[in-house]
Structures are given as C-alpha cells and as structure tokens.
Amino acid sequence: MSTTAVISDPSTIATLPISSEILNYTAIVELDEKGVIQKKSLTTNVRRVETLEDPDYAGKEIIAFKQTVSRPVVGTLAGFTELFPDTDAQLFIINRGLSAFADAKVRSVFLETDKDDTALVFQSTTGTYDLTADVQDTPARKLTSEETLVASLRKLGVSSDMISQVFASLQANKAAATV
After folding, report:
1. In the listed set 34, 55, 83, which residue is the last one of a domain according to the structure?
2. What is the distance between the alpha carbons of residues 104 and 135, in angstroms, rounded to a whole number?
C-alpha cells in the first residue's frame, strides 16, 4: 500500500491515490443512578461537545472519551483498487455507498417542499419509482451557507416570511458595515 498523507486542501485530494482525513470523535454516554450505561452515541459535532463541556450544562449525558482518527480518503480509482484489491470488497463498498447516497436522494426528492413550505412537491406515482436518474444526477456543488441556514430554519419551523426578514436584516447589516 502507498504512503498516506494528511491533505489539508480538499481540492488536492484527487491528485493522490490515497490520502487521509483527520476526524475528532467523542464518545458520549448517559448513565443511570447505578452507573449503568443507558444510552451511548458517537459524534464529530464540535458544538455538541462544547455544550457537554460547558460548566453550566445540566444534562445527563457525559463525555466518555475523545479520540482523533485518521480515515483513508481515495482520490483516484487506482487508489480505490489499491486500498481494496479484492473485487468483492470493492463492490461491497461501492454498493454500501450507493445505498446511502440513494437513501439521501429519496429523502430529498420525496420530502422537498414548495417555496412556502405548505406542500410536498413530489407526487406519488403508480407502480415503482425508478431512482436511477436521481442517483445519476449528482450535485454539482455543495449548499451555500445561506442555503444551509434556510434549511436549518425551516427544520425549526420558521416561516418563509420570517426567513426573508432575517436575510433582509443580515443584508442591511452587511451593507451598513461596508459603508
């Protein structure tokens, strides 16, 4: 196997067959009064960890441990076959990834709402819905921070009018700051 390297600039990943990505995992547990684990979870969410580390946090969850992990990242098909030389292993990994990607597409297509968030856009069809075209339609870009904010506000139940007001206020503040 080739030597791995930590790549800080994601745009260079495709130039190396195999690189690595550093992730910081935190194991979180909730104990009962006898010290028996009732719930356990693993996160890389920095904000969640900061909440648990806050001295004023009064919840039941505690940090069990933190661990930095180096995860392989494949930058080329040659790197993929180097990391997984067995064809069956390659197909298993590809199908697991395809399954997760397809599940996300189904959620995205079926649960998309209109601009006012009053109705789902998808209309059920007779028979089986073929997801092939949706899966092949890979995103050309990541969501902008504004689109991510809108999605988050919608999940919190904020109305479209209120979201528009928030953006108008942010734009006004930005314009005032540049004057």
Report:
1. 83
2. 9
* Cα–Cα nearest to 14, from 79, 97, 93, 69: 79
Tokens of 137: 């339609």
Residue 123 lies in a domain: no
CA pair distance 24, 14, nearest whole angstrom: 23
pTM of the model: 0.56
Q: Is there a domain that residue 113 lies in?
A: no
User: Per residue of the chain (179 residues), what is the pLDDT tens digit?
Assistant: 333 444 445 454 456 888 889 999 999 999 999 989 999 999 999 999 999 999 999 999 999 999 999 999 888 899 999 999 999 999 999 999 999 989 989 998 899 988 888 899 999 989 999 999 988 886 665 667 777 777 778 778 878 888 888 878 877 777 777 66
**Number of domains present in the structure of the chain:** 2
Q: Which domain holds residue 37?
A: 1-83
